[in-house]
Write a structure and sequence with these properties.
The structure is a single chain. This protein is mainly α and 153 residues long. The protein has two domains: 1-71, no CATH class; 74-153, no CATH class. It has helices at 3-25, 41-61, 76-96, 98-113, 118-139. Helix 3 (76-96) runs antiparallel to helix 4. The termini are far apart.
Length: 153
Amino acid sequence: MENRLVDRFVSLIFAGIGIALIVQSRTLTHSAYGSNVGPNAFPTLLGAVMLLLSIILLVKTFRYKRILEKTKSLDYRKFAIFVGLMILYVFLFEPLGYVLSTFLLLIIGFQLLERGKIVYSIIIATLFSGIVYYVYVSLLKGTLPPFPEWLVF
């Protein structure tokens, strides 16, 4: 099977998921107590991003040149480790808070994908965790658990 066919199929699946997310998020309430950002905001945004990216992928598949490339074998071990890492992230999210749990997820994820460059990984993970927290809590007036209670002075 060519990469084009797989990419087209996957883009259509993710477009469907994106549309379903947008439609279903409209059934959620528009505001939450103590927050200007309601529970429908993130699923709607995620659905829109998924839909946009799947459309871009679909358009790109029609522009592929017929180049035969060596196919790489899939690394199921890394995938399984990353799925386990995501499950651990869900369980540690509240006890560790958003900033620390996301920082750890990103550091381990970056090192799982490409060993080395630990300084860049730390910088990117710190900036991402901090900026997303600031934008969501300060600008959008949402609520996230910042840090664990035992770490706050």
